[in-house]
Amino acid sequence: MSFSTILVANRGEIARRIIRTAYSMGVRTIAVFVDADADAPFVSEADESVRLASGYLDGAAIIDAALGSGAEAVHPGYGFLSENPGFAAEVTGAGLTWIGPPGSVIAQMGDKLAAKRLAVAAGVPTLPSAESPGDADGVGYPLIVKAAAGGGGKGMRIVGSPSDLDAAVASARRETAGAFGDDRVFLERYVATSRHIEVQILGDGHGNLVHLGERECSIQRRHQKLIEESPSPVVDDAMRTAMGEAALRLARAIGFRSAGTVEFLVDEATKEFYFLEVNTRLQVEHPVTEEVTGIDLVREQLRIAAGEPLGYAQCDIAFAGHAIEARLCAEDAEAGFLPATGTLAAFSPAEAPVVRWESGVEQGSVVSVAFDPMLAKVIAHAPTRAEAASRLALALERLHIGGVTTNRAFLAAALRHERFLGGDTTTDFIERFGPARSMVLGDTELAWAATAAALWLQCEHRASTPVLADLPSGWRNARLPAQAVSLRHGEHTVDVTYRSRRDGAFDVGDGRYARIHRHSPLDMDVEVDGRRSTVRVTHAGDHLHIQSRRGTVDFRIVPRFVAPGTQVPSGGLAAPMPGTVVEVRVAPGERVTAGTTLVVMEAMKMEHHINAPAGGIVVEVFVGPGQQVDNGVALLVIEPEGAGPDEPGSQPGQGAGEGPR
User: Fold this and answer.
1) What is the pTM of this model?
2) Is the pLDDT reported for residue 302 higher than 90?
3) Pairing state of beta strands 492-500 and 273-279?
4) What would the DSSP string read from start to end of 200-246?
5) Which domain holds residue 184?
6) Does residue 458 lie in a domain region?
7) What is the spatial distance between Cα 3 and Cα 73, in angstroms, rounded to a whole number?
8) Is pLDDT of 474 > 70?
9) Are residue 464 and residue 407 in the same domain, yes or no?
10) Whether residues 275 and 402 fall in one domain
11) CA end-to-end span of the chain, whole Å?
12) Cα-to-chain-centroid distance, residue 393
């Protein structure tokens, strides 16, 4: 290895991932961080961490940190500066080694329009496209607006008719300018029922190029991936060979070196594939390829950057079993997958089943709107696809997590869905099959979890009591009413009453039986109505997070006396998430119809449209462009048609957030 110390110019789970492989190779690591990440796990896991005053996009500060700390190479991870050819050139110009493709390749492939031209020249099939909105008719509708300078779902808008084109292009330009510093967009034919399949490639500096098979990344929301797998359930040997050869033709044409992917769209009806783009970096979903091939892609990146040859040919690569990855995100799936924020009161993966966790957070981590909402990637590898899906779903369900709303229940439901297990995983999977977006507990399950929560709480109270600690819990010298706890779960309030028995057990409610076999501040072995289980428990403020067989149940302890709180005005629309107001499209006195976009907000680098739930007249607007708002803050008030301020029918409303259009 030609270098002994590398600087990781990234954060979160990918920084931890790179650090782990570097250590396994005997390479020291330097991390960089901003104040918002000061307590993040990757900061303490590196040998040394350097604070960035101006953010992760300050290339000059990152290079200074590398030079000042003795690093000899820079690994950019993905996102941020990983596909910035100028930064790559500055790194090498400073005498450092760039762990990635040459800057000239990044520049060629970073421009999606130039990449399409090169793909055509290399004989790789492409979809009809246009560089100017004025040429939309030549592309045909429906079409999709895409960012010319980046991916990851940023700047993508599906357009169904000419009347929607101008607004979609304007919104896409705004979003892509904020994400990539480049507002260029282009148009491409939209294939509604398709699959997103990418081929992993590796190339060294000695002319050796191989592909490591394909990954399917079709299950998406807002054009961003949620579940990825390798191999694809639809790719047979002939298609795999054809896609692999096409990817390698393009890679040779551009002189590719390092790890990257050539991405394709597969038309579900014809099974024809079309070039989409080349990603000149590590992909979020790279672990599924590692699991089925046994090849550590970060290790290969470091070896290639150090000038070493691959040491193997295409015929040496073998594939074993099936791997699936799910992205656990801080978002509210029921509310259109809107980003969520908060503090992780609990975050503890179960010991079994054994899966691979790639996480940038831990218990106590603060989740803000400053960064991408992904909390962790969870990867299961098994001999068969069905077993990998079941193992991954169970690992997600057994994760003890609380304090932040996540898409955990949706992911588990999708993985267990019969159409997923049948391989019917096109890009419109969510819309077509509608997997459950939240964990809905039956009455029996909810009652069991609430009883466990109430009994754990009384154990904690007994453990901390300053007097009469030797008396049995709930003991009375007279016949008094049973002890009672009210717990709130979503829209449901569960009242749990219990009375201690002489044998240490409890009579619960109207004749049910419960016994605590073991209790600790972290868990409890509890039996309720003959059902016994050891459950993880986290107590945070007025919330109790209790592990059930299908996930973590969040209970809020209802106080006996409730102080009045603030409310959204009658007819008001509230912010469905914290974020920044980008645009207000209405003014007081304006008449709107149901579905009209009223306010555009930005959160976690994505735009979200707040739409009118019903027709009416805008009475008041409380926010303006550039304003930061918290979740639940009133944005504006709409008076329904025909309903005056004192008439019935003017009820509080909640803005319907949806993804970018």
Assistant:
1) 0.83
2) yes
3) unpaired
4) EEEE-TTS-EEEEEEEEEEEEETTEEEEEEES-TT--HHHHHHHHHH
5) 128-189
6) yes
7) 7
8) no
9) no
10) yes
11) 48
12) 16
